[in-house]
Amino acid sequence: MTAYSGRGVHGQTVATLGARIVAGEIAEGAVIDLAELGRDLDVSMTVLREALKVLAAKGLVEARQKRGTSVRARVHWNLLDSDVIRWRSEAGDTAAVLRDLAEVRAVVEPAAASMAALRRDEDDLAELDAALADMRTAVGPAAQVAADLRWHRALLRATHNEMLSRMDVFIEPALRLRDALVHEAHDDDPEPSHAVVVDAVRRGAPEEAAAAVSALLDKASSDVAGIIGEKDA
């Protein structure tokens, strides 16, 4: 789920080829001419093959004997992979990514907050408080995004449901994209709205915790809608 960390020619080849596939410049089902692509990107076959292995792990391509390497149908792409999310955004698909994220969060997070209010322990509350403190002291978009992600991971872990606590793997890549956009465009303080959730969780009030998270998500969706509208204007 994490971004590919390759550097240099290898990393650039992964990024260039992945972006072309996601943008539709190389169509689904197309068989990739490795020799031609290598000349186009000015890379060796070794570099190209290693890059294709990375993209295969993301579900974008597959290699078959006697048929060569082809682009897989979108249904097979790992749309939760942070690189794929970034390439979709760069290709103009940001609104769809953020819409899907908002719907997933609306399903998961109010229920998680309600469960956390019933199951949280002192360690959970300490981590939620620490995340709030990070929000208060965060300077710049990167620090603000990190604080927000820490808070959401803490809330999911406070459910004490192992599967639910791992939902951060599914929502974190797109949440990073959403947070980066919002924190760059808005200067409002996110700590008070998140603190309302923590207060309800601390008091063991599941309905209030769920309602507070729903209000937080409504605000997030409104912020994103405004930003996307401004970019499209």
Note down, in words, how this protein is organized.
- The protein has 233 residues and is mainly alpha-helical.
- The chain has helices at 8-22, 34-41, 45-57, 82-119, 122-137, 141-157, 162-165, 168-185, 191-202, 206-232, and strands at 31-32, 61-64, 68-71.
- Strands 1-3-2 form a 3-stranded antiparallel sheet.
- A hairpin with a 3-residue loop joins β2 (61-64) and β3 (68-71).
- The chain is elongated and about 65 Å long.
- The two termini are 32 Å apart.
- The relative contact order is 0.12.
List the uncertain runs.
none
Which strand order does the major sheet show? 1-3-2
Total helical segments: 10
Number of extended strands: 3
Helix content estimate: over 70%
Determine the mean pLDDT.
88
Computed structural class: mainly alpha
Q: How do the helices and strands follow one another from N- to C-terminus? A: HEHHEEHHHHHHH
Beta strand %: under 5%
Organism: Amycolatopsis tucumanensis
Keywords: DNA-binding, Transcription, Transcription regulation
Protein name: FadR/GntR family transcriptional regulator
Pfam families: FCD, GntR
Topology overview:
Blueprint: H1 8-22, E1 31-32, H2 34-41, H3 45-57, E2 61-64, E3 68-71, H4 82-119, H5 122-137, H6 141-157, H7 162-165, H8 168-185, H9 191-202, H10 206-232
Helix pairs in contact: 1-3, 1-4, 4-8, 4-9, 4-10, 5-6, 5-9, 6-8, 8-10, 9-10
Explain briefly what this protein structure is.
By secondary structure, the protein is mainly alpha-helical.
